[in-house]
Amino acid sequence: MKTASMVMAIGLLSIPSWSSYSQAQGPPALCKPCLFYGGDYDPTDPISTVFYNEYTNGVGLTSTYGAVLVPKGRILSISGILFQTMVQGGNKLDPKGAGWEIRTNPVGNGGTLVASGGGPVAMEPTGRQRDGDLEYTISINLNPPVQIAGGRTYPGTVYWFNVTPVCTNSRDPLCATIQYFLSDTTQQTNGVRAYLQQAGLAVINSDHYPYVWEELCTAFPVQGCGRLSFGLMGTLVQ
After folding, report:
1. Domains of the chain by residue range
2. Residue 180 contacts by C-beta under 8 Å, 6 or more apart in sequence?
């Protein structure tokens, strides 16, 4: 089994310059200013999939975290996080909000909580779907922004990010049946510095399903588990 350090060593022997990124049509409109975007879900790719990421009256709380490397010597100011979210059985959040977290070393026990919060979100359709379920960009602002640093050791520091959409209004029957899923990305289409995502290091934690701070690819050993479709907004401080 590959350890986190082995995956980092394999994938980061040569880190491209900070300014380099690839995009065709561009990242989601809500990713602005876009520091990082892992890439779009590809509905034409048979290995594309989605993962539990929700807080609802029907299934409780399950959160999936994507991993991003902040390179050595860099400092980022994170002003927002977005998750590309497939919604099953509805087209809204109730309340229209989400919780967010930034962690380090979460595997096993949750690691260190760097910052967290919650509040209202922006929600826009992407035009993509999976088996009739529509995908939405769900974006939340971090106020005040959170600074994270790569530290002094090569290749840098890995941080895990989450945005969990909610449907917890007890007076809304939809919240007993609706579900939310985080999309993967297999082609990294429209990615912005997508090379910073640490492939295979995503984590899932749940109070409903039997996943306790477990690596996503261990909980769901499928081809599409390696990279998730999410983004970070903010600025490069250093």
Report:
1. 38-236
2. 53, 54, 56, 85, 86, 87, 88, 165, 167
Residues in Cβ contact with 194 at an 8 Å cutoff, skipping those fewer than 6 apart: 21, 22, 36, 37, 38, 39, 185, 188, 227
CB atoms within 10 A of CB 159: 27
pLDDT of 28-51, one tens digit each? 999 999 999 999 999 999 999 999
- For residue 44, count other CB atoms closer than 10 A to its CB: 7
Q: How far apart are CA 165 and CA 26, in angstroms?
A: 24
Looking up tokens 């929700």, which residue turns up? 54
pTM, to two decimals:
0.90
Alpha carbon of 179 to those of 95, 134, 232: distances in Å?
Answer: 14, 12, 23
- 3-state DSSP assignment of residue 210: coil
pLDDT confidence band for 9 (50 / 70 / 90): very low
In contact, 126 and 103? CB cutoff 8 Å = no
Q: CA quadruple 61, 66, 72, 77: dihedral positive or negative?
A: negative
By 3-state DSSP, what share of the chain in percent is helix, strand and coil, each rounded to 5?
10, 50, 45
Write the DSSP symbol of residue 112.
E
Rounded to an integer, what distance in angstroms lies between the CA atom of residue 193 and that of residue 36?
Answer: 5
Residue with tokens 């979460």: 106
Q: Beta 97-104 vs 112-120: how paired, if at all?
A: antiparallel
